[in-house]
Amino acid sequence: MKGFGTFALIVGICWVVFALSMDVSVSTGMGRVNNLGLMADRQVHAIVGGMIALAGLVMLILGGKVSGSAPSALAEMDTRPCPLCAETIKNAAIKCKHCGAEVEQATRVIPAAGWTVRIPCRPGMEFDATQKIMEDEGLPCEKPDGAVVVIGPYEEKREAVEVLRQIRENNSLFGELSYKG
């Protein structure tokens, strides 16, 4: 929706510029005079262009909002119900944050092959900071490949794509998908 909003905003601005640059005068034997019909056309074009630009701006601003009631697919994969109170807790949790009960940590079965998310970094502090962010997010980090943080593997490509999207939205980090065979 943000892409369409950007497109509508650009089209609206171009339309307004076109409308304001319209010539509304006509030539007569005694010089140029303003034509009321052309002035009305310019006004209509300016209003239509302004409305399209305004609609595009609204789509651009509100297009990125995600409904807070719908949990993401990654959150569903990374959570489970507490065995005592049935509230949602993370798979890595050893204590329920809702009822305080001690629970066993759910172990993730790591496939031998699958889709990985690879985030290239500069060696040193940037690599260490990125690795820490991924561990704090509870994402399974594999042995690093040089200065590349490797997350996964995941059996299905959609799981890796969801992790990539989450990393981009939450941490403004960009990576790539790779298949580890």
Provide a brief overview of the structure.
The protein is of the alpha+beta class and 181 residues long. The chain has helices at 2-20, 36-62, 73-77, 125-136, 157-171, and strands at residues 25-28, 31-34, 79-81, 88-90, 114-120, 148-154, 176-180. The protein contains 5 helices and 7 strands, in the order αββααβββαβαβ.
Task: Report the sheet with the most strands, covering strand number, pairing sense and barrel closure.
Answer: 3 strands, antiparallel
**Oligomeric form:** single chain
Strand order of the largest sheet: 6-5-7
One letter per element, helices H and strands E, the order comes to: HEEHHEEEHEHE
Rounded mean pLDDT score:
84
Instruction: Give the second-level CATH assignment, the architecture of the largest domain.
Output: 2-Layer Sandwich
CA-based gyration radius: 27 Å
- In DSSP terms (H or I, runs of 4 or more residues), the helix count works out at 5
Task: Give the topology.
Layout: H1 2-20, E1 25-28, E2 31-34, H2 36-62, H3 73-77, E3 79-81, E4 88-90, E5 114-120, H4 125-136, E6 148-154, H5 157-171, E7 176-180
Antiparallel strand pairs: 1-2, 3-4, 5-6, 5-7
Describe the structure.
The protein has about 180 residues and is an alpha+beta fold. It has three domains: about 1-60; about 70-105, no CATH class; about 115-180, Alpha-Beta Plaits. Helices cover about 45% and strands about 20% of the residues. The protein is built from five helices and seven strands, in the order H-E-E-H-H-E-E-E-H-E-H-E. The chain has helices at about 1-20, 35-60, 75, 125-135, 155-170; strands at about 25-30, 30-35, 80, 90, 115-120, 150-155, 175-180. The strands form three sheets. The chain has a three-stranded antiparallel sheet with strand order 6-5-7, with helices on one face. Strands 1-2 form a two-stranded antiparallel sheet. A two-stranded antiparallel sheet has the order 3-4. The longest helix is centred in the first third of the chain and has 27 residues, at about 35-60. The radius of gyration is 27 Å and the shape is elongated. The relative contact order is 0.11. Mean pLDDT is about 85; it is low at about 65-70.
